[in-house]
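hey can u check if this looks right to u? its 190 residues, i copy pasted from the old doc so theres a chance i mangled smth
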Amino acid sequence: MSDEENIMPIRQGSIDGLCGVYSVMNATEAVIGKFHYDRKLRRKASQRKVLFKKLIGYLAKQDMLEEAMIWGFENIDAKGGFIDIAIKSVKKYQRRKLRKKIAFDTDDVTLDAYWEKLTEHLKQPESAVIICLSGRIKHWTCVRRITPNALILSDSSGIRQIARDRSTIETESRDMYTLWPRLTYLLSVV
């Protein structure tokens, strides 16, 4: 087998930092269902593509596109940020009101309290959670369901779930998924 045959193709998302963009898009779709196809949109694009364009446009307008493409970004919810853009898009195209709430105002919570808060939120119909991870991976993702033992994801990199026994809040370890309560956003339809 030659070296050429051993080379795996580069996967979309493997070298870019757009997980924040995808986490917001996946959470929005988890809450509202599939994005509508709107014939009035230019080039007959889907609302999904329009929202993606607005999120990328936001990064460009904030002069953050190059940095985000390579390194990702810390805060997807700065004032007027990604979640607010998604809220406006849902209101415009679905005529529905999407609500966001920061789960915690501190990172000083227990894993049990974190799990309980997400469990209560995800019991609601039309809900999702956006979380920030570090440790094993630095990543933004969407939680669409939760069980006593795992976070079930809708994730751009292909991660399907995160086991509770592989999760922590207290420490940052390359062996664990560190969850950040202050960077956890609860989304639902009002």
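The longest strand covers residues 127-135.
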